[in-house]
Design brief:
five-stranded antiparallel sheet, single chain, 0% helix, 172 residues, mainly beta, 18 strands, Jelly Rolls
């Protein structure tokens, strides 16, 4: 099994893959006795009025990533809503092969309300919970999945899947 060293998410180390969503390290744009608000923390214009927000709960399983997916036309957002730690794998696309460039594979630890906006065209997989479970608000364009008769299907022209040659685990 290939091991990837997990690193803590910060404001700059995710920028090749999208954006980190964290409490900004700057003064709030609006502040009063009740609240502090930071404006424009992530550019979601890719959704063009066509986005959705879902609730995702992941259970702790052994970290053995065997496949990755890539959204070809949409960002994907994972925003922790319970603060439980998890790991997010990402890799850039190898355009010649249209598969993950494994030399760019990274693993990021999300904790204490961290989140990520994964660029369209970046390979990734569902976050792995590091506790019993972890909960996320998940955002993407609303035409990626459809429900018909209680069955959900994925538009495979908008999502590409790739089975890895060997499973990927974590090194802390």
């Amino acid at each position: 099994m290939k091991l990837v060293k997990a690193q803590r998410l910060d404001d700059t180390n995710f920028e090749n893959y999208g954006w980190a969503i964290r409490k900004p390290d700057r003064d709030a744009d609006v502040e009063n006795e009740q609240l502090r608000y930071w404006d424009n923390c992530a550019d979601l214009s890719n959704f063009t009025g066509n986005g959705l927000l879902g609730f995702l709960e992941v259970k702790r399983i052994p970290v053995e990533m065997k496949m990755m997916d890539m959204l070809t036309e949409s960002l994907r957002i994972y925003l922790s809503i319970d603060g439980k730690p998890s790991v997010q794998f990402v890799a850039l696309n190898d355009p010649a092969a249209n598969q993950p460039d494994m030399s760019t594979l990274q693993a990021f630890i999300l904790e204490e309300g961290d989140g990520v906006v994964i660029d369209k065209g970046v390979w990734h997989w569902t976050p792995y919970a590091l506790t019993e479970k972890a909960s996320f608000a998940m955002g993407l364009k609303n035409d990626i999945m459809s429900a018909k008769g209680g069955t959900y299907t994925v538009d495979e022209t908008k999502v590409k899947y790739f089975t890895l040659e060997e499973p990927v685990g974590l090194q802390f």
